From TrEMBL:
UniProt name for this protein: thiazole synthase
Catalytic activities: [ThiS sulfur-carrier protein]-C-terminal-Gly-aminoethanethioate + 2-iminoacetate + 1-deoxy-D-xylulose 5-phosphate = [ThiS sulfur-carrier protein]-C-terminal Gly-Gly + 2-[(2R,5Z)-2-carboxy-4-methylthiazol-5(2H)-ylidene]ethyl phosphate + 2 H2O + H(+)
Keywords: Schiff base, Thiamine biosynthesis, Transferase
Pfam families per the UniProt record, alphabetical: ThiG (PF05690)
Lineage: Bacteria, environmental samples
Top-rank EC class of the record's enzyme: transferase
Annotated metabolic or biological route of this protein: Cofactor biosynthesis; thiamine diphosphate biosynthesis
SUPFAM superfamilies in the record: ThiG-like (SSF110399)
Physiological role: Catalyzes the rearrangement of 1-deoxy-D-xylulose 5-phosphate (DXP) to produce the thiazole phosphate moiety of thiamine. Sulfur is provided by the thiocarboxylate moiety of the carrier protein ThiS. In vitro, sulfur can be provided by H(2)S.
EC number: 2.8.1.10
Domain Thiazole synthase ThiG: 1-214
GO molecular function annotation: thiazole synthase activity
GO biological process: thiamine diphosphate biosynthetic process
Organism from which the protein derives: uncultured bacterium BAC13K9BAC
Amino acid sequence: MVTVAIRRMNIGQDQASKNLLDYVTPDKYTILPNTAGCYTAKDAIRTCEIAAELLNGEKLIKLEVLSQSKTLFPDIVETIKAAEILVKKDFKVMVYTTDDPIVAKELENIGCECVMPLGSAIGSGIGIINEFNIREIVENATVPIIVDAGVGTASDACIAMELGCDGVLMNTAIACAKEPNIMATAMKYAVIAGREAFLAGRIAKKQSGSPSSPKAGLVTGE
C-alpha cells in the first residue's frame, strides 16, 4: 500500500506534469490517497472527491484534517465532521487521529474502516509517547489500528506491533534515513518481530527475580 498526498503529488490532475501512477501503478500497488495539507473538513472532503474521480471511483482514502502547521496534530472537530460526511458518501475511511481512546472509538462508531492514532507528531521521529493509550485503543477496537506518525527507527515500529497494532504507516523514518534501503529492511523485520512477540505473549513483569530453571530435583550436595 502506498499513500499519496493528493494536494502535493500529481496522479492525473495535472496533465502537463509527470504522473506518479505511471511509476507506482495501481495494478501492482494499492494506492491510498490522503488529504495531507487540509485544515478544514470542507477541503478534506473535496480532496477525497477529486481522488475518487482520478482513481476511477475508488473510494479508499486516508483522512487527515490538521489543526495547525507547527505540530501537525489533527483537528478532531473537523476530522469527525469530515468522517461523518465521507462515510455517508460511501468512502472507505482510514482516519488519522490523536492517541485519545475516546476519540478513536467515536471514529470507529461513525463507520471509519481503520483508525490511525499518532505515536507522536508527524515527522518528529520521537516514537510512541503514550503506550498506554495506544494499547487501550487496540483493546477496545473492532477495526484495524495502524500507528500513523512519529516513528523514527525500527524499535518504534516493533513497539507499535508489540502493543497489538495491525500495522505502521511510515515515510520520514525511511525516506530521511542515511541509508533508506537499509532502514526499510530494518522496518520490515521490526514489524514482523513485533507482531510475532504480540502473538506469542510476553511474560508478566515482576518486582523481583525468579529462577528460570526448575527447582524440583535440585542437587544439594548432600
